[in-house]
Amino acid sequence: MARLVIVGGGIVGSAAAYHLAVIHGWGDIVVIDQGPLPYNAGSTSHAPGGVVAASHNKTLTRMALYSADVYESLDAYDDQHVHVNRLGGLEIARTAQRFEDLKRLHGEGKSYGYTSRLLTPAETVEMVPWFDPAAFAGSFYVEESQLVKGYHLVGDFMRKAEATGRVTFRPHTGLVAIETANGAVTGVTTTNPELERIDCEQVLLAANVWSPAIADQLGVSVPLTPFEHQYAITTALDDWAEWAEGTIHEENRYPLIRDVDVTMYYRSHHHRLGIGSYHHAPRAVSSDEMGDSALRPFTPADFTEAWKLAQEIVPMLRGREPEFDDAYNGIFAFSADAMPIIGPSSVVHGLWSANASWLTHGAGVAKSVAEWMAEGHTEWDMRECHLHRFGAHVQTRAYLEAVSVTNYTEIYDVHHPKEPLSHPRNVRLSPFHQRHLDADCVFTPFAGLELPNWFASNEPLVERYGDAIPDRDWWGAMHWSPIMGAEHLATRETASLWDLTGLSIIEVAGPRAVEYVDRLCSNRVDGPVGSVVYTLWLTPEGGIKRDLTVARRADDVFWLFVGEGTLPQDLDWVRRHVGDGAVVSDRSGAYSGIGIFGPNAPAILGAVADADLASFRFYSGRTLDVGMAKTFAMRISYVGENGWELHVPMESSLPVWDALWEAGQDHGLVLAGLGAMDSMRLEKGYRLWGADIHTEYDPYEAGLGWTVRLDKGDFIGRDAARTAREAGPERRLACLTLDGVGATLMGYEPVLQDGQVVGHITTGNMGYTVGRYIAYAYLPTHLAVPGTELTVEYFDEPYSATVAAEPLFDPKMERMKG
Description:
Layout: E1 2-7, H1 11-23, E2 29-32, H2 43-46, E3 50-51, H3 58-73, E4 84-85, E5 89-93, H4 96-112, E6 116-119, H5 121-127, E7 138-142, E8 146-148, H6 150-163, E9 167-170, E10 175-181, E11 184-190, E12 197-205, H7 211-216, E13 224-234, E14 256-259, E15 264-269, E16 272-277, E17 295-296, H8 304-313, E18 324-335, E19 341-344, E20 351-355, H9 362-375, H10 397-409, E21 428-429, H11 433-438, E22 441-446, E23 449-455, H12 459-465, H13 482-493, E24 495-499, E25 503-509, H14 513-520, E26 532-538, E27 544-554, E28 557-563, H15 567-577, E29 583-586, E30 591-597, H16 601-608, E31 621-626, E32 629-634, E33 643-649, H17 653-664, E34 669-671, H18 674-683, H19 718-727, E35 731-738, E36 750-753, E37 756-767, E38 772-780, E39 789-794, E40 797-804, H20 814-817
Parallel strand pairs: 1-2, 1-12, 2-9, 5-14, 12-20, 21-23, 24-34
Antiparallel strand pairs: 3-8, 4-8, 5-7, 6-7, 10-11, 11-12, 13-16, 13-18, 14-15, 15-16, 17-18, 19-20, 22-23, 24-30, 25-28, 25-29, 26-27, 27-28, 30-33, 31-32, 32-33, 35-38, 35-40, 36-37, 36-39, 37-38, 39-40
């Protein structure tokens, strides 16, 4: 009987076994792999070995930095090779736009903790003399990047894990099936005649490109797509003839080099050059057609353009025909959103995922899943990596094929933080979609749902508000329009209509509903029917799992309002904590959401609602007749204005929208989108989940301690919250205003005092009503004091910032309460 079977002995599977046994003390672990070990048939062994430390994504960067440190701590598997050469990594910018993006990466490095330098072409060629300095605009060097031999890492993970006596590795042992009973793992069957069946409590699926087909047999979705990409090693190059052939320490004399503008990369192999290329038409491979190897024959026609591009930047290749000592198409995993897929299954108890990872992040993924399994929580927030983060549409074959091609073709593109997904689009439409089209809406997809970002029909408003909407620099102006500012200001002046269909509804109903919901929430929810509460879910360790609104619809019925983008994992969280005596239901598809906000909102809603709105209290909810629809209305607002959220049966939604629009024509009603919502909520000091708050922050750091009622009954995270309050926060989320306009902060720009990094930006936007640019950042408590002067670095330039008292808009809540 095994405690755990790990399926897949590549970098993630072997590292997970190491972490569980060596760090967490787990035993009775069996690792099976269909091929030999440590040199197995997966991407770990054929990968060229680049560990790329820098990324715009904080989670991926942490995983890469951790992996680099762990890899360097390992020993070579044999005495004939060096397993790690920490020579750093270079990213080449062929264009000025790319070099600007590298400046952003350089700034983020100060926030994330890696060491980097921006280099001119001449400085780059000092490091890599075989590059043509006329072929590129500059480069970006990261000290922590490295080149490794993947199978050596696997070999030492194996050796150290086996030395504990707690782990057994079984090569040439393919998986036949994962067996279950009553919704839980009971064992695995294998192709090994000496080990046909292993009884076990848990299975960690770490087979990467083979995992979707395995998981699908159990009704579990692991939405990733295997793709071929090319790697070729040239024959000997005369320019490198003076190198001592066979000197193992000189195989990697130069850093890993990524030619990101053309989706290529380079590394040395003694006196030969290795060239990796994604610069060819996508070659997807179905997971259930993978066979027993992640290697495919080289397709020379796909490399024709890549060879020309390599010749442009590497002069010693010019005039040469593409002749290679070795060349192949290697298969790598691309998840639906380009992030790892980690965590426990809610479909099959005891089944875990650690997939969609490359060598760069392998040890970081293993660290996270091992912590999750052994301790029940992770050091890093897993919101972007959660197995159950994907909506139903993402789990369809058609969507996955389409989005995976997009991820492949755009792998090295310069991506703006506000840039919407390019393809596929129009996957999910709100009931108001045609009305949005009629108003020349500019859409952005939110969990696949097309929602308004702004409305081009509002362009005349821009002239009305004039100088209150300052211009933006080239970066800030991307995926932005001054119409966003106009919609913001018009809402403050009159009223606006919003599509809130992106709000999801989780219903908990039954005789024990209040018990379960109260235990989930930090705030008191056991109020009278019609009460509405803003609250948090906390992790057992006291981090902010989610912020949400809870409405008591009846004595034994609660509606929990969360964002559509996090619904799958939020629903999983609720179901894990609600037992007998209550039923959890997803009511999201049955209701649309409409927002009516602004000083004139009461008059507009009053014209179409058969109700006395004067008695409608702030933070309360009730059913109204809005036109001919029974509508659940809540008097709350995320934009800091008087108004209501209306949740309308889907089939009645469009008539309600039309009735409100018609009634608003005499009251200055405008349409508004997500762009205005972001600037308005920031002006009001409202937190954005996933940026301002997540599991790595506690309520007292985030300024949300008022939502935590330690004197109520027990709730998840109460003890940790009490400890945090008694200790007092060492950092606080602080409001900053930038002196002057110029920077357009979008997150992770470093905040400095006297040249030392003291935090980083979480969110930022223009406060059009208060006339100041606003940003938020976690700062040491002694700095999070109004009046503190700081510096924010933006594209390698300093900007003065000052800590301000929050909120900047309507601090006494006079607008909200009417």
